[in-house]
Amino acid sequence: MIINKHNDIPEKEYQYNRIISSLGQTESWLTANEALWSHSNETVSLEEVVWEDDQPDTRNGKCVYVKKNGYGAFGNCLRKLPFVCKSEAVLKDYFRCRSGEGIQSKFVCDGHNDCHDMSDEANCASRCHHVIDAEYGSADTKPSGVIVNTNNNYDNSRSCFWSIVTNVGSTIKVQVNTFNTEKNADVVEFRTGGREGEIFLAELTGKLAVNNQPVYYSSDNVFNIRLVTDNTVLQSGGFRISWTTDVPEVFNDVKMLTATTSVQDLKSPFYDAGNFPQEKVFEWKITASTLNVITLEFENLDIGKDSKLYLWDQDDISLDPTLDGVSAFKPKHYISKSKSIRLMLITGREEAPFPKGLYIKYWEGCSISYMSKEGTIQSPGFIVDSYPENVVCTWTIQRPTSETRTMALRFNMFDLQDEQDYLKIYNDTNEMLHTGKGFTGTDDLTNNYEVRSTNGYIKLVFTTNYVLTDKGFEAEFSLDCAELAVSEETRHISTSGYETSFMNTIEMSCDDGYSFVNEGRSNVHFIKCEKGGEWNETRIPNCMITYCPIPPPVHNGYIVESSGVKVDNNVTYKCNDGFTMNGEPVIKCLQDGNWEVPPRCTAATCPVLTTPGNGSIETLVGDGRDFASVVQYVCNPGYETYGNVTTYCQTGGKWSHEPPTCE
Fold first, then answer.
1. Mean per-residue pLDDT, 123-141
2. pLDDT given at position 159
3. pLDDT tens-digit series, residues 198-238
4. Strand ranges (DSSP E) for 306-449?
5. Which CATH class is domain 490-545?
6. In the chain, where the domains are located
7. If you ran DSSP here, which 8-state letter would residue 522 be given?
8. pLDDT for residue 9
9. pLDDT for the residue 58
């Protein structure tokens, strides 16, 4: 039993058979109720744990570790590697299932799933299922071997399985030496990711060329190969596959690197080989040999969506990372504040095709040259809010040789120790833009201050003294966008003195009678010069003459005159006989390319007729009131009509005759 000194609650003790830790000899991780000293195979029980001063404090991390003096504290969980395995005892001569349960040995390879996870049927030669034990001790030679399946034992209608298992934390390399199977009928599949092979690597069928010998790597300590054949008797030469656990490219310890003034490369294992390691932890420590700072240049951070790269601008990784996810870091370079940088890559689980990997260049000092269309510059230690003492950093910026456009640089942040630390700025052919020792203090370089270069050359020199420091500075540079090639009728108003400078927005408008036809005939449009010297639209809007379409027809009317279809041109309408115009007879072509609303021609109507005494009215044509309606008067029997018997509705809304009388 182990007693927690704070609450005297007894807790169950577990026996762990494997622990991998990256801690020093003076510390251990607390797992359940035991401390396991790093670099040791023995478990050290703790009789009691006493919190260190100011502990427990989860702000330092979420995992508890125990110092050798017995005091406990919270720390960064990233310091602990992920393999802590618990195994329970089983009876002697029993078979231990993968789940930890024990079964009698007579039930192994009997065709029944007695373990409920098929582990008792995994290593059965009679069923062509093989588990290759590739584990080794610290003094042993790392195992390797060959899997051969040729015509001699290449049977039809079979499902053969090989599972290579090595030490936890180790990697298995598999290479296909020769391969010839019945194409699309007999297939070999390669998988990794535990005994179940959850990560698919490749599938081969047919014949591979002699010079084509693909290589695959396990993501963990298990590599699975499965052969499935059909029931046809056609057979080919089979295959020969070699494997080894001696994979020096994959390392478990921290890789120690020394930065010099020469540029060196840091690459993740199997970089650009299509075999990005899965579910691994890699650590690098870079130390400057003589100078105070280190520069990292991020060439490629293609590590997949489930992987993460951490950076510490210090030697102690128990503290929070300086960059918690380097892939999201926008500048191409990172300049340290300290003489040591720690990097930790924790890879995730990806399906093939795998990411390309990690590629970083590094050197000591902070002399950086750019030949680029755009970029971001940060002073050393900018991310940690202060630059180091006694450094001289130089940034030389040049546009690509194929470019002739001008270039600009702007500051997002500028805060130096006044009259102690200085920034010198040069443009074009080393023309000084500063006075004296350079810009210092909080000189207002962030308020519309712009460094411009006509020949694409800008240089910054940053010098710090031996005492106090400050936040530093951040600046962005970019080529200007191409000059606007627009018509004389296109007007443009810039929010900056240089309308083609990056991040500048231009308001564009058209003279009367013109519009941006391809932008929906609008008369005002905005475009922006993006960082990198490209406009945010693929084509620059250009004002064109605005034309209205064919004038709209008017029902029961017609056009009598037109001056054209340009802006401010007119069209005159007239109604047919018997129709009255509602609206203006003249309409105009508007700036937006549409006509004003045309008039309507409505039929003329005559007043309601009064029925004569001793008679009636019958409608012969029309509705009895509209234009051209014909009406007949009928007198009652015994009465005689005096006047016109019929009348019709005329143009202008008048009846043709006075109504008759019946007498």
1. 88
2. 85
3. 888 899 999 999 888 999 998 888 999 999 988 876 667 88
4. 308-312, 323-324, 333-335, 340-346, 357-364, 367-371, 374-378, 392-398, 407-415, 422-427, 431-432
5. mainly beta
6. 2-86, 122-244, 249-365, 367-479, 490-545, 557-603, 615-662
7. B
8. 29
9. 73
